[in-house]
């Protein structure tokens, strides 16, 4: 009976990579068998889950990707700060309405963007004032509201253009990883860009029209925001990598989709996608640019993961020159 | 390793403090130290041992074969001993601060109930006095 149980545990530990099994397999099976009940014939469900999780971690090299979670927290603070700053810039546009505006308004706002931007400002306020993980709830609510914006058309309301909504969605998704423990510096870092963006909002309010003003911002301001984001990431990355701290690498990878979506309008105008130099909005080019952003972002994430796993790979223990066993 | 230690890490290092132990012994010792609350499974244990070895807090000691099964022993390193000592002192300080706070709370409760019983007697006699005073008149 113990023979059958041992065979089953040996089959179970195939969840581990081959190199790990060569080093630790005998030891792990022996430990399971020593803890097994005398009449036990099968690995328990808890043992199965334990091996699958531990083996999965070894295969994915989670131990090496130690910068991922801190990087996600850093990216979340940056993302929420940007969401708040952009909301401050967008909000004045919602109070402008051309005389020919014929669709229903949302209270004092031209489109459903008004409540959405207010929700993001409330999320920033929540990050400053609320304790621990509670601050993630306003972020989640704002994200849900932003994702639901396209459905406004079903009720005859207007929504901000996707050029503006999609980057906010990408930033908002990253902002969900807001750290539970936030010191004064982190809370200020979330709120400060929104406070400074009041200047940008004043400039945006000088743009005529509501929907048209959004399009102007998407082509002028948002790509500059993307460039600033990437520049800040590069500068911070040099400082952090000097200390072999992978946080900024991961933060940059997680913010890459948002940066790409912020810059999707000029990407769509790239001569490779737009050889005729056509300045008109063409959805086909924007969609292709969006797909390019998604593919590059996914590739960057996989590449960063592979690099981290390679860096963390433990060297195989030396083999005994006589018996060949590894100690 | 910076910051407070997680409980499983602390108990694994504690289990290794007196002598080298092998996997199942560590699991048994951790369960005993935690009063049965923490039951490490081998998959979780060996992941933790790998991380602690990478951090230089423990290392492999020796191997034996018992009943046809491999036993690999682990021992605490000097760095592990230092880290465990620092964490034990930190927990001691926290526990002492908690005990001091609770002692002060108990003292305040005792002082409060003594004061209330004194005031109650005064009120009782004041309430009795008018009746006595009315009776006298």
Structure, described:
The complex is a heterodimer of chains A (327) and B (137). With 327 residues, chain A is mainly α. Chain A has 13 helices and no strands. In chain A, α4 crosses α5, α6 runs antiparallel to α7 and α7 runs antiparallel to α11. In chain B, α1 packs across α2. Chain B has 137 residues and is α+β, with helices and mostly antiparallel strands. Chain B is elongated. Chain B has a domain of 76 residues: Arc Repressor Mutant, subunit A. Chain B is built from four helices and three strands, in the order αβααββα. Classes of the chains: A mainly alpha (327), B alpha+beta (137). Chains A and B meet through α2 and α3 of A and α2, α3 and β3 of B.
Task: Please give the structural blueprint.
The complex is a heterodimer of chains A (327) and B (137).
Chain A: H1 2-12, H2 18-35, H3 45-60, H4 68-94, H5 113-129, H6 136-147, H7 162-175, H8 184-196, H9 198-204, H10 211-242, H11 247-262, H12 264-268, H13 283-312
Helix pairs in contact in A: 1-2, 4-5, 4-7, 4-8, 4-9, 4-11, 5-6, 5-8, 6-7, 7-11, 10-11, 11-13
Chain B: H1 7-16, E1 21-22, H2 23-33, H3 42-54, E2 58-66, E3 69-76, H4 78-136
Antiparallel strand pairs in B: 1-3, 2-3
């Amino acid at each position: 009976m113990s023979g059958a149980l041992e065979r089953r545990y040996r089959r179970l530990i195939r969840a581990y990579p081959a190199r790990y099994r060569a080093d630790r397999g005998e030891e792990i099976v022996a430990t399971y068998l020593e803890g097994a009940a005398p009449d036990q014939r099968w690995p328990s469900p808890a043992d199965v889950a334990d091996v699958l999780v531990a083996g999965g971690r070894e295969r994915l090299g989670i131990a090496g990707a130690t910068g991922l979670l801190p990087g996600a927290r850093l990216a979340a603070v940056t993302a929420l700060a940007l969401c708040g700053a952009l909301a401050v810039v967008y909000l004045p546009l919602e109070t402008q309405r051309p005389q020919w505006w014929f669709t229903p308004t949302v209270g004092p706002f031209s489109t459903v963007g008004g409540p959405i931007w207010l929700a993001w400002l409330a999320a920033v306020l929540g990050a400053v004032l609320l304790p621990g993980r509670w601050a993630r709830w306003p972020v989640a609510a704002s994200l849900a509201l932003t994702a639901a914006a396209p459905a406004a058309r079903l009720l005859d309301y207007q929504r901000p253009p996707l050029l503006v909504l999609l980057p906010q969605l990408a930033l908002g998704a990253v902002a969900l990883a807001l750290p539970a423990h936030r010191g004064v510096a982190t809370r200020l870092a979330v709120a400060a860009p929104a406070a400074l963006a009041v200047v940008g909002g004043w400039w945006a309010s000088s743009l005529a029209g509501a929907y048209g003003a959004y399009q102007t911002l998407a082509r002028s301001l948002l790509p500059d925001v993307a460039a600033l984001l990437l520049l800040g990431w590069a500068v911070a990355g040099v400082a952090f990598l000097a200390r072999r701290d992978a946080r900024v690498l991961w933060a940059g990878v997680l913010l890459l989709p948002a940066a790409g979506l912020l810059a999707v309008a000029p990407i769509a105008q790239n001569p490779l996608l737009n050889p005729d130099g056509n300045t008109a909005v063409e959805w086909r080019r924007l969609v292709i640019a969006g797909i390019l952003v998604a593919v590059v972002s996914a590739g960057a994430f996989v590449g960063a993961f592979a690099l981290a796993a390679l860096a963390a790979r433990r060297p195989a223990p030396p083999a005994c020159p006589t018996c060949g066993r590894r100690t | 390793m910076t910051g407070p230690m997680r409980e499983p890490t602390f108990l694994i290092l504690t289990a290794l403090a007196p002598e080298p132990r092998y996997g199942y012994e560590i699991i048994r010792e951790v369960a005993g130290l935690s009063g049965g609350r923490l039951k490490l499974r081998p998959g979780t244990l060996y992941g933790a041992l790998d991380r602690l070895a990478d951090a230089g807090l423990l290392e492999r000691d020796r191997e034996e074969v018992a009943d046809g099964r491999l036993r690999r022993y682990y021992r605490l390193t000097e760095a592990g001993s230092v880290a465990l000592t620092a964490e034990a002192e930190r927990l001691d300080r926290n526990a002492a601060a908690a005990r001091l706070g609770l002692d002060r709370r108990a003292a305040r409760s005792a002082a409060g109930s003594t004061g209330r019983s004194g005031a109650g007697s005064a009120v009782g006699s004041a309430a009795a006095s008018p009746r006595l005073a009315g009776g006298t008149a």
